[in-house]
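Section 4.2 – Deliverable D4.2 (structural model, holo form)

The reporting period included a commitment to supply a predicted holo structure for the target in complex with S-adenosylmethionine. Inputs used:
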Amino acid sequence: MKKFSDAYWNAHYQSGTMGWDVGYVSTPLKNYFDSIKEREIKILIPGAGNAYEVSYLFEKGFRHVNLLDFAPESIVNFKKRQASFPEKQIFCEDFFDHKGSYDLIIEQTFMCSLPPDKRPAYTEKMHQLLKPSGRLLGLLFNHHFEFEGPPYGGTAEEYRKLFEKLFIIEQMEVSKDSIKPRRNRELFFKLLKS
Ligand SMILES: C[S@@+](CC[C@H](N)C(=O)[O-])C[C@H]1O[C@@H](n2cnc3c(N)ncnc32)[C@H](O)[C@@H]1O
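Output (structure tokens):
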């Protein structure tokens, strides 16, 4: 099975080997979501996996939250928990093929799951999917891993170089409210489409 393929990721969900899966909405994202006043914004969570963040937002009244993942089994898991979630807001497809226009896109352990040479394409695709003045925000590992990924990490400097061509970097700092296993190991970042 080809590494990085949908079948590769789907097999992880089928076998339950999901080291990245927090099991609930991660604290930094929850705290950010709690600060958003405008409930009508259109949100995308790509590479959402079991999508606890989608559940959280939807239950809080963000009716226009959209889930994208190309591993069907992750979507089966999500639907078991969130039966009333609108089908039209679920995209089981490759992120790079997705068409849409969003106010906000959320990143969490998605970019690190892609081959590092895809990062420029990831950045361009995010830019394309955002409305004017839209934002991409979330979490990125702030270190490299000693083993061959995924996950693939990085540094604030590397991410700045990648993003600054297309975005205004509003925030990029060590996350203050990470879950314990990720404490001091991830950056909270916020990018404005320029
Ligand atoms: C490491 S997991 C993270 C899942 C979730 N964000 C979380 O924090 O639990 C990476 C996810 O990205 C999905 N993924 C990887 N490449 C993708 C692509 N090109 N298009 C859509 N989904 C992709 C995988 O299926 C997997 O669910």
